Amino acid sequence: MRKFKDYILEVPVLHDVQAAFKNRQLQQYYKSLRDFYISKPSRPFDEVITEKIRLYDTTFTYRTDLNILMFYDNSGWLDKHIKPTLNQFGKVDTAFFNDQNGYKDREVNANTLLNYTSSNNYDLIFIGGSRGHISNEVLRKIMYEYKVPIINFQFDDKQIFNRKVNDYQTGSLEAAYGCTLTFTNAKYSIDWYLKEGCPAVYLPEGSLPSLYYPDKAVKKDVDVAFFGQKYGLRGKLVKHLHRNNINVVAYGPGWQNGFVEFEIQRQLIQRTKIVISHEGVGYSFWPSHIKGKTFDFALSGACLLTSYSSELPDWFVLNQEILCYYNFEDAVDIIHYYLSHHDERSTIAHNAYLKALNYHTWWHRFDMIFKLLDKHCLKLK
Length: 381
Description:
Layout: H1 4-10, H2 12-38, H3 45-56, E1 66-72, H4 77-81, H5 83-86, E2 90-96, H6 106-119, E3 124-128, H7 136-146, E4 150-154, E5 164-165, E6 168-169, H8 172-177, E7 181-184, H9 190-195, E8 200-202, E9 222-227, H10 234-243, E10 248-251, H11 262-271, E11 272-277, H12 292-299, E12 303-307, E13 323-325, H13 328-339, H14 342-359, H15 362-379
Parallel strand pairs: 1-2, 1-3, 3-4, 4-7, 7-8, 9-10, 9-11, 11-12, 12-13
Antiparallel strand pairs: 5-6
Helix pairs in contact: 12-14
């Protein structure tokens, strides 16, 4: 049986009404957050992290033999992308929090984390993607008793920043209260964290050269491809490209081709002349943030065309390392041009690959975090 949302996609009027409604909801949510935080006094990062380190007498020295604990959900993504890099910095233990019942599993998760920290002398703890799965009180207890820094991974956190369910905090802010440092790929949530007394840095995801790499022996026989789940504006984007005589294929949950295994996806990326993406959230071009797959595509040697985000120039040189579109018609024009200009397209792809390899791997991300922690802990010795 066809899903109702697929039917909506095929009826332009219904899709536009749904898109307008969803977009309005999203904009209202962000406006409420902006209005709430605009009245709060700003706080500089150095002041906030110094306060947090001094409060818990946190100690950390950057070494290559660190004893690290990763505590995260059992989705497999962090295990595949993050742990191999952390292994380069020392010994890594992994523990999984129970996320079947959300905040209701807090006690179980607290016991798991406390058991690990009480029986191991960790130099560093990473909390990955907690959405209220563990209370900030438990995290504070660990920092106080063991003087260990806790790093909070938060990706796409602006959508659920201060979310509550039945008076329980289930947003990204809950874990941030109990952590030494939060890093997020949402640039404009940094100020919100700092105003709440939570040290935070803007740092998008990285990529892994052992997983993503170009292969010059592979023939580029796919004109345009989209990789990712079908939702929001993505279906409309792909349909618009088809209507303008662009041979685009899409892979991921919800598309006709469906989900493809990682090895097959990697080969498809290597075969694609132009990979198209969308940095916006849901049914809008804004708010947007740079996604982790942006760096995966670059490291794979792909020529990437994505919707414009104000965060992209922080990491890539526009039109030299990455291509951007501002609306669907813009995307059509850019694709037609670069499909017929092989050398320019190849140069952009190669430039993006070099930038990602030299600056945007997960090793670079952790090196930056560890240096930052070492610097601020050293200042207070």
